[in-house]
Amino acid sequence: MIHTGDQAQRNPSLSNGPVVVLLAGGWGRRMGGGDKGLRVVAGMPILRHVLNRARGWTDRIVLSANDDPARFAGLDWLAGIPVLPDRVPGRPGPLAGILAAMDWAAGQVPDRGHVLSLPCDTPFLPPALWPSLAMQGGTGIAMATGPDGHRHPTVALWPVSLRHALREALIEEGLHKVGVFAARHGRVDVPFPAGPDGIDPFFNINSPDDLAQAEALIPSA
Q1: Do 152 and 143 touch, CB atoms closer than 8 A?
Q2: What's the CA gap between 12 and 127, in Å, rounded?
Q3: What is the pLDDT of residues 174-216, one digit of tens each?
Q4: What angle (nearest 5°) sits at the alpha carbon of residue 211, between those of residues 208 and 214?
C-alpha cells in the first residue's frame, strides 16, 4: 500500500532502524531533466511516496542530491532531512550517494550500523523491505530481488563499516558499478514477491510512459 499521508505506519523500534538514504542524485534525462522524484503520482511527488514508506522503518533519513540544495528548501515534507551532495568528483553515480550517507551515519549516529539505500523513483516499495533485508542479510550487503528474479542494486542494506573500502573503490579504482562492489563484500540476494495484482514492488519510473503506468497502478497498489 502507498501511504497518502505524511506519516507511514510507525514501527515501535524506529530508533533501531538504519539510516535511510533516498538516492536522488541522477540527471533524470529520460524524464526531460530535473528532479525525477518530484514528478507527481496520485497527487504526490514520487519521492514523497518513498519517504513515507521509509518513515515507517527509521527516524534517520537523508537525501542524496547534487547541485543547489535550495531547490528542496520550500518543501515542508522534506523539513529536517539533510541533503548530502556527492563528495567524490565526477558524479560517479549511486555509490557516491551511498558513501555520503555512510559518512554521515558514522559522524552523526555512530550507533547505527547500516545504511538502507532507496531510489527516489520507486513508489511501490514493500512494507517488509527493511525487516526482510535486515533478517536475511547477515554480515554482508543485503540486496533486493523482485518477483521476476531481477536484482535491484540500489535497493540494499549496506554495513557502514564498508565505507573505507567503498571510498577506496570509488577514488582509487574509479569503480562505479554498484553490483560489482556488492559482489566483493558478501552480497546476499533477498527475494520479494509481487504486490497486489502482480505489481512489481520495485517498479521504477524512468520515463513519461512509466509515470502514466504508475498512475494506472495506484488503485491496485
Answers
A1: yes
A2: 14
A3: 999 999 999 999 999 999 999 988 999 999 998 889 999 998 8
A4: 155
Between CA 140 and CA 162 the distance in angstroms is: 10
**Nearest in space to 46 (alpha carbons), one of 35, 57, 56:** 35
Grid cell 540544495 in the structure block, residue? 69
Query: What confidence tens digit (pLDDT) does each residue in 35-48 have?
Result: 889 999 999 999 99
Which single residue is written with the C-alpha cell 515542508?
A: 76
Give the whole-angstrom CA distance, residue 144 versus residue 193: 11
Q: Quote the pTM value.
A: 0.90
Asked if 114 and 174 count as a contact pair (C-beta separation under 8 A), the reply is no
Grid coordinates standing for 50? Answer: 518513498
Kindly state the helix (H) or strand (E) to which residue 182 belongs, with its residue range. helix 178-184
